[in-house]
Every structure is written in structure tokens, then in C-alpha cells.
Design goal:
The protein has 103 residues and is an alpha+beta fold. It is built from two helices and seven strands. The strands form two sheets. The protein has a four-stranded antiparallel β-sheet, with helices on one face.
């Protein structure tokens, strides 16, 4: 049986941001494989988000905007993450739309 995942279809004007809970990160690197422009593994073996300027954001809870062309890759990262540590939320109201706390 094949399961098809529905493509994310956020409002084009709806800004999203993503962050990683390093306390739950298993260091598998799946996120960096799916979306290397957004995620990167650091020397400590954990994943972090990157700024639009490609800077690794290592502060706990650091967020970065989700570029619309990379939305599917970021969502797939959140869905496939074995640590359930990737959180994607709306900027306008901080509601998680993808990730372990999504409604």
C-alpha cells in the first residue's frame, strides 16, 4: 500500500520560521540532507538552523525564516526527523504548523 503525503499549501503571504530543539536532536543529519540551505550539523554532532546569510545559529531556540521554495524540504525534514526536534511555526502567531507540537 502506498501512502501519499499531501503537499504543504500555506498561504503564500504566510511567513513561516523553523527551529530545532537540540536537546532532542539525534544527530542523524536527515534534515541537512533534505534542506542543506536551512540545516547543518555542527562539530558537536547536532543539527542547527542557518540564517539567510548561511550563518549557523547556535543559540537555543534560534529561528530562521523558511524560504517558500524550500518549504517541502523543511516539512519533509520535520516529518522524517527521528528525534522529533524540528518545529515549523507561523511567524504571525507562533502556532506550530509542522513538527511534533503541530495542531
Amino acid at each position: 500500500m502506498t501512502v501519499q503525503h499531501e503537499a504543504p499549501s500555506p498561504d503564500a503571504a504566510e511567513a513561516l520560521e523553523v527551529w530545532i530543539d537540540q536537546d532532542l536532536c539525534t544527530g542523524d543529519g536527515i534534515c541537512a540532507q533534505y534542506a542543506p540551505d536551512v540545516f547543518e550539523l555542527d562539530i558537536d554532532g547536532l543539527a542547527y538552523v542557518k540564517s539567510a546569510e548561511d550563518e549557523l545559529l547556535q543559540d537555543p531556540g534560534a529561528t530562521t525564516p523558511v524560504p517558500l521554495p524550500l518549504l517541502r524540504d523543511v516539512v519533509d525534514s520535520a516529518r522524517e526527523c527521528p528525534g522529533d526536534c524540528i518545529h515549523v511555526r507561523r511567524v504571525s502567531d507562533s502556532v506550530e504548523v509542522y513538527g511534533p507540537d503541530a495542531e
